[in-house]
Amino acid sequence: MPRFKLLIPLIVILTLIQLLMGQERIIHSQIIHLNTGQYLVIDETKVSLWRNFGDWSKSSQ
Fold first, then answer.
1. Beta 47-50 vs 39-42: how paired, if at all?
2. Nearest by Cα to 43 from 61, 22, 23, 25
3. What pLDDT, on a 0 to 100 scale, did the predictor assign at position 8?
């Protein structure tokens, strides 16, 4: 059982690392949460307005 408890944080950490590696652009971006519930995203190439983080995957393709 102790091994299983150690496995869960490891999986979470590895998943986070994979997400960060796959989305380097988000690291170099400034994300400003607006009062309207939208996100203003400023990266090196453009300024975009998102309703939610689902819009990120569409814009990065």
1. antiparallel
2. 25
3. 75
